[in-house]
Amino acid sequence: MFENPRWRVGYATVGLFVLLAGDALRFTVGWWVFSILTVAVTIVSLWLLFAERHRWRVNHLPYPLLLFLALATVSIVWSHYPASTALGLFTTWVIVVNGVAFAIALSWTQLLGALSHVLRFVIGASLLFELFVSTVIRARVLPLFGQPGVDYGSYKHIPGMLMWSRNELFDVFGTGRIQGILGNSNSLGFLALLGLIVFSIQFATHSDSRRTPGGRGWSRSRRASGVWIVLAAASILMTKSATVTLALVGVVIVAVVVLSIRRAHTPRGRTIVASVTALAVVAVGVVLVLFRGEVLALLGKSSDLTGRLGIWRAVIGLAQERPVFGWGWISYWVPWADPFDHLVYRAKVLQLQAHNTWLDVVFQLGIVGLVVFVLLVAVTAVKAWQHAVDRPQSVPMAPQSYTAITMLGLLILTALIVQSFAESRLITEYGLALLVVVAVKTKRRELL
User: Fold this and answer.
1) Residue 332 and residue 367: Cα distance in Å, rounded?
2) Which of 143, 279, 326, 438 is most exposed by smallest CB count within 10 Å?
3) For residues 351 and 149, is the Cβ–Cβ distance under 8 A?
4) Residue 346: its pLDDT value, please?
5) Comparing C-alpha atoms, which of 402, 379, 315 is closest to residue 353?
6) Crossing angle, helix 429-444 and helix 82-105, to 10 degrees?
7) Per-residue pLDDT averaged across 182-190, rounded?
8) What is the pTM assigned to this prediction?
9) Alpha-carbon distance 288 to 423, whole Å?
10) How many CB atoms lie within 10 A of CB 79?
């Protein structure tokens, strides 16, 4: 059973759907069903890790990851909210266990296929959902199951931030933004960006997970990938997420640089590419600093980054009270614990994240935690970069041809890093899971 590739891809598809589309599940079937499904997937992951115990060891996992988990775990000792830290640790360990299982049990090709299944469903279902809302219901739609800590009856006019769909599909050429089955424009836009990465790699490698053996299947699978590339790009446009737009730019730049280095056949050529890239990054940085107002306006953002500056100031103020080891790990903020139950409101909605991964880590684990987490991301980025730019070798001194799939980890990580400056997803659900997958797989130096 464990050796069956289809079974493994199916298991990973369900697991990744729970992690990537958790909001959709919680809105449609509720927290209890979502929790039961999460525990079931985790049990299978533990079973799979046990069955594959001959292929991995705990001390073979990335050391920064182990150090970060250890620090988060012992933070319960000094936590300001120990019960909530215990819950946060449970969810974090569940995410990490599943991420490690995906990395150990699946090849890059199988992971690509599982991601493709999930992202196709999320994008397709989101577009159909928004179409149904705008053509049949013709009104804003609340989630079938509410969010924790939210009393919808206390609002005279429920904020759009709490709606499942704001019925804005036919206004996307104006001020409207679609939210899809995730109920969040930024989340849908980011998953659409991941879809753009996955479908493009499938298009480039002819590795569409639904291809059939033989020559005739290739063209059909490539056409399917092309269609999904268009749908993913359209979803990005209709979500109008400034964060996703910047992440897309970052992904494109990294992809161009990697492809340029791959085409540079001499050390001098690679040096030239690296130098030009460094100059371009510096130039972009200068432009962003000197013309930040114009850039924000172009991206449709206010000068306070849609309320984020207020959130950041509140988080920084608390972080300064406990600068070394922080307030204690919690991952995603809970609405019933102090200080989260009153910390920040935006548009009359209680905020449950710092909207910046790095500030969230400083707040929860202090400067020590930030150093460890930066080390984890930096080491993963270096290994993902090497995996993308170095010519594959299954045996020493026998380099093989480059393949597009070796860019998957680097491009996903690039998108996550850019997103981390405006969202805290890198330490919750799909962000942490994908970080773990890339960290583990690139350390293992798996090719395909």
Assistant:
1) 19
2) 279
3) no
4) 81
5) 315
6) 40
7) 95
8) 0.92
9) 19
10) 22
Q: 9-13, 22-26, 266-270, 392-396: which range is least confident on average?
A: 392-396
Contact 400, 392 (CB under 8 A): yes
Give the C-alpha separation, 158 to 274, whole Å. 51
202 with 112: CB under 8 angstroms? yes
Six-digit token pair at 6?
């289809």
Burial class (CB in 10 A: 0-12, 13-18, 19+), 290: exposed
Give residue for tokens 């950041």. Answer: 312
Q: What SS3 state is found at 30? A: helix
DSSP H or E run through 59: none
Tokens of 327: 């307030």
Name the residue among 3, 74, 90, 9 with its Cα closest to residue 42: 90
DSSP conformational letter for 67: H
Structure tokens at 143: 């989630």
Cis geometry, peptide bond prior to residue 339 (ω within 30 degrees of 0): yes
Per-residue pLDDT of 15-35, as tens digits, reads 999 999 999 999 999 999 999
406 in Cβ contact with 204 (< 8 Å): no
Which residues share a beta bridge with 345? 350
- CB atoms closer than 10 angstroms to residue 389: 20
Burial code of 2-29, b = ≥16 C-beta within 10 A, e = fewer?
A: eeeeeebbebbbbbbbbbbbbbbbbbee
Q: What are the backbone angles phi and psi of residue 393, rounded to the nearest 5°?
A: -140, 120
Q: What end-to-end distance do the CA atoms of the chain give, in Å? A: 21
Q: What's the rounded Cα separation, in Å, for the pair 329 and 81?
A: 9
pLDDT score of 213: 45
Tokens of residue 411, six digits: 């491009």
**Is the distance from CB of 422 to CB of 389 less than 8 angstroms?**
no
Q: Which residues of 44-75 are buried (b: 16+ CB within 10 A; e: fewer)?
A: bbeebbeeeeeebeeeebbebbebbbebbeeb
The type of residue at 125 is A
User: Any residues with CB less than 8 A from the CB of 46 and at least 6 apart, and which?
Assistant: 97, 101
Given a contact cutoff of 8 angstroms between Cβ atoms, the answer to whether 419 and 245 are in contact is no
pLDDT tens-place string over residues 188-247:
999 999 999 999 999 998 744 444 444 455 567 888 999 999 999 999 999 999 999 999
H-helix or E-strand containing 211?
A: none
Q: Is 163 helix (H, G, I), strand (E, B) or coil?
A: coil
Over the stretch 50-62, which tens digit does the pLDDT of each residue have? Answer: 988 888 999 889 9
Spatial contact of 9 and 110, defined as CB atoms under 8 Å apart: yes
The count of other CB atoms within 10 Å of the CB of residue 371 is 16
